[in-house]
Amino acid sequence: MKKKVFVLMSGGVDSSVAASLLKREGYDVIGVHLKISKYCNPQDEEDARAVANILNIPFYVIDITQEYQSTIALDTIKNYALGLTPNPDALCNRLIKFGYVFDLLKKLGMDYIATGHYAKKEKINNEEVIKIPKDKNKDQTYFLWGIKKQRIKKILFPLGDLTKEEVRKIAKDFDLPVAEKKDSQGICFLGSIKLIDFLKEFLPENRGLILDSKGRILGNHPGYYFFTEGQRHGLNIKTGDGPYYVALKDPKRNYIIVARENEEILYSKKIKLKNVN
Hints:
By secondary structure, this protein is an alpha/beta fold. The chain has helices spanning 13-24, 42-55, 65-81, 88-107, 164-173, 195-200, and strands spanning 4-8, 28-35, 59-63, 112-114, 120-124, 127-131, 155-156, 208-212, 217-221, 245-250, 255-259. A 5-stranded parallel beta sheet has the order 3-2-1-4-7, with helices on both faces. A 4-stranded mixed beta sheet has the order 9-8-11-10, with no helix packed on it. Strands 5-6 form a two-stranded antiparallel sheet.
């Protein structure tokens, strides 16, 4: 009996090729498109459905907007309000794609779940682990760090031994309409909406000062939580001796500290880790 694989199809070229390759390998492939927020581009669902039709595989849309908003979106807002810079895509992979959705598909008879992530698996000491893919420029293993270890054996990454160029060529070979589709950028649940515009729906304007590393006032900002460390663009700085980058945020005083590229304050020899998997 063929193994049943649910492929999470975003409507992009990567997940479309992942589904195509698994179908060619003889799996019983079922396409699943996740609707995660009101900002989703409806064209993505249409593209995913079109690819499923070409491959002649079943296709379903699962609306997980409520689950996503109550976990990932809410966590994102809370962390920015605290002056932190969260990674919602990594949290989504742990709690939603390979959490809530994984459990749901398992009840539907799933043998494997597959995605278009650029990642590989390898068995080490009788345990499957996630490894860096062939195309290191597209490496997405960082976003997969939080997946529960016991679930890795149920996940397939068909693109692990392919480069992006090879993936696009395969898409053309399959006559997929998304072969030349641009890669998505930014946070997945925001679609084409800018992060700052999303945050402004929930966080009030809270004007404060922009200081350089010596304490000189260079400008002002609408709220420290609208900026992130390392950010260069969008700073209201009028001096001509830049460019400046966000080095630190001080939520208590509502300051943003900026520095030039060669200043020591931009660099660190330490890192704090939590939730280590």
